[in-house]
Amino acid sequence: MLVGVVGKTNTGKSTFFCAVTLIPVVIENRPFTTIKANRGIGYLRSPCVCGDFNVKDTPSNSICIDGIRLIPIELLDIAGLVPGAWQGKGLGNMFLDDIRKADALIHVVDAAGATDEEGQSSKPGTRDPVKDVEFLDYEISMWLVQIVKKDWRKLVQVVDVMKGNFVDALTDRLSGLSIKKAHVSEALRRTGLEVEHVSKWTDNDLLNLISTLRKIAKPMVIAANKIDLPFAEENVKRLRELGYPVVPCCCEGELILRRAVERGLISYTPGDKDFIYKSTSITDEQKRVLEIIRSKVLFKWGSTGVQQVMDTAFFKLLQMMPVYPVEDIEALADHKGRVLPDVFLIPQGSNPRQLAYLIHSDLGDTFIYAVDARTKKRLGEDYVLKERDVIKIISAKART
Ligand SMILES: Nc1nc2c(ncn2[C@@H]2O[C@H](COP(=O)(O)OP(=O)(O)OP(=O)(O)O)[C@@H](O)[C@H]2O)c(=O)[nH]1
Ligand SMILES: [Mg+2]
After folding, report:
1. Is 389 a pocket residue for ligand 1 (Cβ < 6 Å)?
2. Residue 289 alpha carbon to ligand 2 centre in Å
3. Given ligand 1 and candidates 122, 236, 252, which is best to mutate, with the most ligand atoms within 8 Å of its CB?
4. Rounded distance, CA 20 to CA 313, Å?
5. What domains sit in the chain, N to C, each tagged with a CATH number?
6. Closest residue by CA, ligand 1 atom 11
7. Residue 20 Cα to ligand 2 middle (Å)
8. What does the pLDDT profile of the chain (400 residues) look like in tens digits?
9. Is 252 in the pocket of ligand 1 (CB under 6 A)?
10. Across the strands, what pairs with 223?
11. Whole-angstrom distance, CA of residue 19 vs CA of residue 202
């Protein structure tokens, strides 16, 4: 699963990416700082099961800090866009092509309205961030419409004359865009458009279908950034009326906190509501900046919001959940003796065999049953895995 960080140019996308991945990318107060997308690893935050079992864990594919499991995931920081990108304006298709790979989108908006339509910085309160959301929706939809329209007549012929399947034909046309057949069927159901009359659809019908499809295939969370600035609070309220999950955030504040942790100045885990001073060699200036973040962001909003954006994207939009496979249910360990070494992200509603496949295709093929480490009960393929289950897979090859 890959999540793309998108939005108008100069809203703080790279700051968000850097705060999450700690990859030093270029951040500047000007449009089009990022041209080539940055790809990196960020972390999701989930309460670790080590506390439930009262054991000291030795994580391998993830990190555990004070009972909080940080689970690695992939993130893409995409070039910014300006209105007309779908027609090639600004960096145009450069941005749009990178969206192809994304399964969900984090839309970083300047909630303070301190960047104009073209991404030039302006006084807070001068740009309506609601317009930024509307325009990004429109840009992505128009770009997709353009792709579909290229072959529209052929597609209509396949369905009308050759009685081909519309869902198959459209999914095929959109291949390589991380859009699945189920997404297309669901978009048709929601719009109520009739496939039998596809040749009579208007441009608006097609736009309606495609924007609905985009919302299903590439769900979006709004990261309402720059909440440290004036006007953000009232704009956040208005952004919440658009029907997307909205998380107020201060990417710059999160980046400063993460860097202060790296320098050993404070202790802070992403997503925390406060930090603790660790070093006595902290300068007055460093303290002043940290105290501003504390009062303007942490105390006022409850956190910097950056971690919550990540968790919303993977747990709510993509409906993933963490599950812990182990080989020994007594020691909760793998064959190397590592305790609760791995956590896997798996779609909600998955069964133990699907977990086995995620670990290794052989293990899925030879799956016999699973065992729940909490209840010691045997679980068949009909069992629906729960969030934070600790599971042993029994296979014909007797390996996990
Ligand atoms: N006040 C404030 N400024 C921020 C925040 N996050 C980012 N910025 C500033 O916004 C400006 C743009 O940041 P970038 O991260 O480069 O923005 P971008 O969206 O990647 O921009 P492009 O790559 O040019 O499209 C920089 O001056 C950042 O310091 C924040 O939370 N608050
Ligand atoms: Mg950037």
Report:
1. no
2. 23
3. 252
4. 13
5. 321-395 (3.10.20.30)
6. 29
7. 14
8. 899 999 999 999 999 999 999 888 888 888 888 888 899 999 999 999 999 999 999 999 999 999 999 999 999 999 888 788 777 777 767 777 788 889 999 999 999 999 999 899 999 999 999 999 999 999 999 989 999 998 888 888 888 777 778 999 999 989 889 899 999 999 999 999 988 888 899 999 999 999 999 999 999 999 999 999 999 999 999 999 999 999 999 999 999 999 999 999 999 999 999 999 998 889 999 999 999 999 999 999 999 999 999 999 999 999 999 999 999 999 999 999 999 999 999 999 999 999 999 999 999 999 999 999 999 999 999 999 999 999 999 999 754 4
9. yes
10. 108, 247
11. 44
Residue 18 CA, closest ligand 1 atom number: 15
- pTM (two decimals): 0.93
129 class by beta-carbon count within 10 Å (0-12 exposed, 13-18 middle, 19+ buried): buried
251 ligand 1 Cβ < 6 A:
yes
Q: Is 192 left (phi over 0), alpha (psi -120 to 50) or beta?
A: left
**Tokens (6 digits) for 28:** 């500047």
